[in-house]
Amino acid sequence: MIGTLRRANALIALYAVLLTSSCACHLGAVADPSGTFRFRTRGTTMKTPMIATLAAALLAGPALAQTDDVSGRLVLYTSQPNEDAQRTVDAFNAVYPNVTVDWIRDGTTQVMARLEAEFAAGSPQPDVLLIADTVVMEGLEAQGRLMPYPEADVSAYDPALMDPERHYFSTKLITTGIIYNTAAPFVPESWSDLLRPEAQGQIAMPSPLASGAATIHMVALTSHPDLGWAYYEGLAAQGTNPQGGNGGVYNAVAGGEQMFGMVVDFLPIREIPNGAPVAFVFPEEGVSAVTEPVAILSTAQNVPAAQAFVDFLISPEGQQLAADMGYLPAHPAIAPPEGFPAMDQIQLLEFDPAVALENAEDYRLRFVEIFGG
Q: What CDD domains does the record tag this protein with (predicted)?
């Protein structure tokens, strides 16, 4: 009975967030000297309503921790886009209203530079990290910077998505596939199709020197027995010039400057319903995936709140939040957002973050050898 009441109380708070269209209690955003924005929120509400299945999942699923027992200040460093980060914190606060979340958002590279400086000074600030990829988490784990959370319930998940020692936890799947302009000379079905003569000089791709997702994609493709480094050499022979991140690739293809590209899934899938002249393909060989893992630092000051944040993100309601923001949820019971195929129709390329970390410099040098710096 007590568990049911706790779920009901949490549902009331969360449902209030879902139905509110403006932020009720955002306490401000201030740029620090580095240009990074710092945010503090408590008891805020999201700008965009989520669908009713989130509420149903909360009632149907097991109760989260007793919310009144979790309180205090929680410091989050994240590489999520600002709007996504705000929605994540708002939804967490709806369930854990006694936690004040201070969060800093920047790109993963910038977040890690900041954190490394704090490590060097002996004063790391965050309790939790929510950043782009598992390779960075592997590096932190190897340095003893992450606190294991073996009690986290990951029973519903594919074991391949979670760190075996429970130092970090995947929260979504952001895959990289092929985007093409609807005026393209053919519809690609495989990665090898980008080597067809009709694609010569018409391919955009992000650079692994600038994008974590592109780095993981490079490792996954070059590890595939039918592709390997010969595939990247073929892309270079096609006149492909990797530059910047995924946003530039999307803009180049959507704007008609290029007909094909390698890009993260949500960029085109979100815009296709708005009339963007693009389509997205999950190639038959498979797709790589960034899993936006969350982890607790070994120096965390508020461990109960940090564990609650992890619990929320990997719970059914946290996974529904990811889906409602337009991402492919990692939880197999949560339906993908509109525009995505069912999870069992998506083939993931094999990827070992520990191997990628160990050979990171070799991968970088080989890429520069093929495409230049």
A: PBP2_Fbp_like_2
pLDDT tens, residue by residue, 83-97: 999 999 999 999 999
Q: Are 288 and 176 in contact (CB under 8 A)?
A: yes
Nearest residue to 302 via CA among 71, 112, 93: 71
Look up the pTM and report it: 0.78
Integer Cα distance of 241 and 184 in angstroms = 19
Same CATH topology for 2-171+292-329 and 174-289+341-371: the answer is: yes
Handedness of CA 285, 327, 135, 113 (dihedral sign): positive
97: tokens are: 């209203």
* Phi, psi of 109, rounded to the nearest 5 degrees: -60, -45
The CATH class of the 2-171+292-329 domain is alpha beta
Q: Mind listing the pLDDT tens digit for each residue in 251-267?
A: 999 999 999 999 999 99
**Closest by alpha carbon to 76, among 308, 291, 268?**
308
In DSSP terms, 261 is beta-bridged to 179, 204
- Facing residues of 348 across strands? 287
Task: Say whether domain 174-289+341-371 belongs to CATH 3.30.2310.20.
Answer: no
